[in-house]
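User: I'll paste a sequence; please echo it back and then give the predicted structure.

Assistant: Echoing your sequence first, then the prediction.
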Amino acid sequence: MVATAPPLLPLFRSRLQGDLLAALLLVPGAEHTLTELARRTGGSLAAVQREVDRLEEAGLLASRRVGRARLVSADRGSPAVAPLTELVALSFGPVQILAEEFADLDGLDLLEVFGSWAARHHGERGRPPADVDVLAVGAPDRDAVHEAALRAEDRIGLPVNVTVLSPQRWAEGGDGFVQRVRDAPRIAVPR
């Protein structure tokens, strides 16, 4: 099966390629094994290895061996990596960045991306997202949520709008907003 270009930024060959670049470019110094990259992106180990080989041949990634493991990272010496990182952050990076910026927040039961960014990530056609909508279920400190959202905005380059819901309101799901969010594409932010 041939993978189609992702609607978020169709210059990337596939969503797997974009997700790999996000995992490796958006965290300075990140280094992952092929197995870790397959787990993070949901791609098969063989597909990840082929894509990493292509990106390394293009001078965007570098790898080294430690025992039997192949560790992959961004090739920071490449002049293309800095501008590519900006494109990847706009197209594939919000989930990665949100995971990092919200990692230390207590009181969160669920963190997900919804709205137009999630819809494009799931393959729905439409205008490029103008913001990133985030659902936070739990009882986190509101100031900490706001600060995390501002840090994420700076890194993503798009406004980050966080809606905090109580676990009860989310579980009951009786109001229109909750129903619309539940019925639309969502992307879990790993915690």
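The chain has a mean pLDDT of 90. The radius of gyration is 17 Å.
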